[in-house]
């Protein structure tokens, strides 16, 4: 049995009822990210970001891998239909929201800035980003 077997729609909606979690999920739709990158993009304290990521992970909406001191979060490769449908809706709605659009711009700038940096959150090891800004 997989992590999503028997997942209830209510559990998904509980995760989606917080703006910070929505912003995190929207960023992760673009690919895996280190906690420090999520923190940097959202401009929130590390404790708050980690709390929300733990919440999402405990409910199966994100996965995590560890590389040295960094935690790389990603959306699960296999998603139940209910989650996939809600993530598509989130993506569509986020395109209309100024704060979500600003997050996307910050993510793009971050990826461009670190593209050639020394690998720490290495795509070879984590398939995340080329470097960590921690």
**Fraction of residues in β-strands:** 5-15%
CATH class: Mainly Alpha
- Biggest pleated-sheet summary: 3 strands, antiparallel
Number of strands: 3
SS class: mainly alpha
Q: What do we call the CATH homologous superfamily?
A: Winged helix-like DNA-binding domain superfamily/Winged helix DNA-binding domain
What is the third-level CATH name, the topology?
Answer: Arc Repressor Mutant, subunit A
| CA-atom Rg in angstroms | 14 Å
Helicity range:
55-70%
| Whole-number mean pLDDT | 84
Order of helices and strands: HHEHHEEHHH
Number of structural units classed as domains: 1
Shape: globular
Helix count from the secondary structure assignment = 7
> What strand order characterises the main sheet?
1-3-2
CATH hierarchy: architecture: Orthogonal Bundle
Question: Distance between termini?
Answer: 37 Å
- Low-pLDDT stretches are 122-131
């Amino acid at each position: 049995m997989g992590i999503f077997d028997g997942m209830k729609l209510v559990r998904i909606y509980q995760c989606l009822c917080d703006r910070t979690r929505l912003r995190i999920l929207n960023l992760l739709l673009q690919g895996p990210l280190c906690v420090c990158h999520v923190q940097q993009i959202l401009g929130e304290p590390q404790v708050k970001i980690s709390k929300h990521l733990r919440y999402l992970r405990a409910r199966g909406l994100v996965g995590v891998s560890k590389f040295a001191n960094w935690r790389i979060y990603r959306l699960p490769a296999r998603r139940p239909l209910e989650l996939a449908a809600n993530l598509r809706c989130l993506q569509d709605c986020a395109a209309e929201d100024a704060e979500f659009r600003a997050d996307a711009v910050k993510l793009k700038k971050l990826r461009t800035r670190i593209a050639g940096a020394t690998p720490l959150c290495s795509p070879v090891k984590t398939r995340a980003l080329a470097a960590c800004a921690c």
